[in-house]
Design a protein that fits this description.
Blueprint (H helix, E strand, L loop, with lengths): L15 H21 L5 H72 L12 H7 L23 H15 L3 H14 L6 H13 L4 H14 L6 H14 L3 H14 L5 H14 L3
Function: Mediates coordination of peptidoglycan synthesis and outer membrane constriction during cell division.
Main location: periplasm
Protein name: Cell division coordinator CpoB
């Protein structure tokens, strides 16, 4: 039997190239913002830093989306290939079995017509019966659960709301971002991105000089979402906010505690805490 005409195996999603292009544009913007940091006035430096941080997080999330889409496409490819091989295997076995049965019928009839021939059996002999039954196909390889979200994954609604708030933050629309982040936390307080949203909420206050509200937001993030990826960042900014509120002793204490409290924090965060301590004249 001729092989079935199968559609081309699944390729990466059509928008994968667009995602990569968007990622490249974001990376270029990050480079430009880094270069601009050395030329802006001190008052604008905090805003530039915040926009840069938001953009870098978007890049990390975009990279994750690309990797997830690529992995999903590869899993679908594997499942389609297995399905194709499985189906063709079964059809070939069925074709072979049909050929055996069709070839055996005339021989049985001829035997019945011949003198002294034994009567034709009413059913195929055991060997023929065995041949007519397709054998089990070889075990499939690959597969798994392509694209199935893990329980820890954010819902599409949460991702949309979070990306919208982060976009406002990146564009410097801090009032807008504040409202969107508050709405996100109220609606998706148990989402895995809630800790990130709480941190960015604190940043909207910090960049506008509302250090008391910033300190409260960062402290709330540390207490409510202690396991968040942004917990070390919140702790760092809590110390910086306290120093800006003329609570130098408390701020210095927080910054000094960061490396031991968050031993797994990135070296960037630890180095920043050390620089802020020196800048504030902490003991």
């Amino acid at each position: 039997m001729a092989g079935l005409a199968w559609p081309a195996l699944a390729q990466a999603p059509a928008d994968l190239g667009a995602l990569r292009e968007q990622l490249a544009q974001m990376s270029q913007t990050v480079t430009e913002l880094h270069l601009a940091q050395s030329t802006v006035a001190p008052g604008a430096a905090a805003q530039l830093e915040l926009r840069l941080s938001a953009l870098e997080e978007e890049i990390r999330r975009m990279t994750g989306k690309i990797e997830e889409a690529q992995n999903s496409a590869e899993q679908v490819d594997a499942k389609l290939k297995n399905l194709q091989e499985d189906t063709e295997f079964r059809l070939n076995r069925l074709e072979q079995a049909t050929g055996v049965l069709a070839g055996g019928a005339p021989a049985a009839g001829a035997g019945a017509a011949g003198a002294g021939a034994a009567p034709a059996p009413s059913s195929p002999p055991p060997a023929t019966t065995a041949a007519a039954t397709p054998a089990a196909p070889p075990p499939a390889t690959g597969g798994g659960n392509p694209g199935g979200p893990s329980p820890a994954s954010s819902s599409p609604a949460a991702l949309t709301a979070y990306d919208k708030a982060l976009g406002s933050l990146r564009r410097g629309e801090y009032d807008q971002a504040e409202g969107e982040l508050k709405s996100f936390i109220a609606a998706f307080g148990s989402d895995k991105l809630a800790g990130n949203a709480q941190y960015w909420l604190g940043e909207t206050y910090y960049v506008r000089g509302n250090y008391d509200l910033a300190a409260k937001a960062f402290l709330d993030g540390i207490k409510t979402y202690p396991g968040s990826a942004k917990a070390p960042d919140s702790f760092l900014k809590l110390g910086m906010s306290l120093i800006q509120m003329n609570q130098k002793d408390k701020g210095c204490q927080v910054l000094a505690e960061l490396p031991t409290r968050y031993a797994d924090a990135s070296q960037t965060i630890k180095s920043r805490a050390d620089r802020e301590r020196k800048a504030a004249g902490c003991p």
